[in-house]
Design goal:
Chain lengths: 149, 104
Amino acid sequence: MTFKTDPADALTRGTVFKAVARLRFAEAEVLQHQKHLLGAVYLVGYAIECHLKYAVCATNEFLLLPSFACLSDGKLRKLYTHEWDVLVAAAQLRPSFKAEPRMEAIYTSLALTWAPSLRYRTKPFEESEGRRLYRSLAALYQFLKISQP
Amino acid sequence: MKTQAQPKRLTPFPRAKIARRVAEIMPEGRDFTLRVADSGLPDLKVVHVVTEAWNRQPNTDRIFKVIKAVRPALTEAENDRILHFSVLTPAEYAELVEPQPATS
């Protein structure tokens, strides 16, 4: 896998993404306990995105997150993205999911469900749906944190 | 006639079996602690192997080693109780394993 950076781009340190992921997850936990599930679900998903960006840096030994990665399909993909699949590929986390099929199934379902557009959602979740979604996202965040500490 | 829903019967968690398999692959002189935590998801546990063994290896390699040794030794129902494994040093465990989300 190759990475490219546009010299004009302002890049962010991997450790900043890691710290932000932890902060957003802690905030999501508070919201979840207060039954603010829309905000909790959005924030825990954002924590996952940030941890994935940290994982790209940690796995590939970069101090700063590069602008682009050339993935196995030969296409150049932006790494300053909300697309988890791109980040998982660039962080070489696919084998970790393959080894734990339940986590892979959870990831696949959440990667389709969670999107930054959730921040504009105003319709509340049904409580059971929101809690189930939150728990799955939180379990995914914990798994990623353990896979790439 | 009304029937009451029967509570789901879970396979007992195979803690001893997991511990035996992990002990078999530990490098000589290395110790470990097995910690089984709720995953936050119904009926699913996370198994943490806390050890200094293999601590120079990438985390994913350590986890694969344990998965390869343990998963095949468990029945399908036992495997179904485990969401995922982790292998962490005591310091990593203290740093990374935060309280699980409330399940209420």
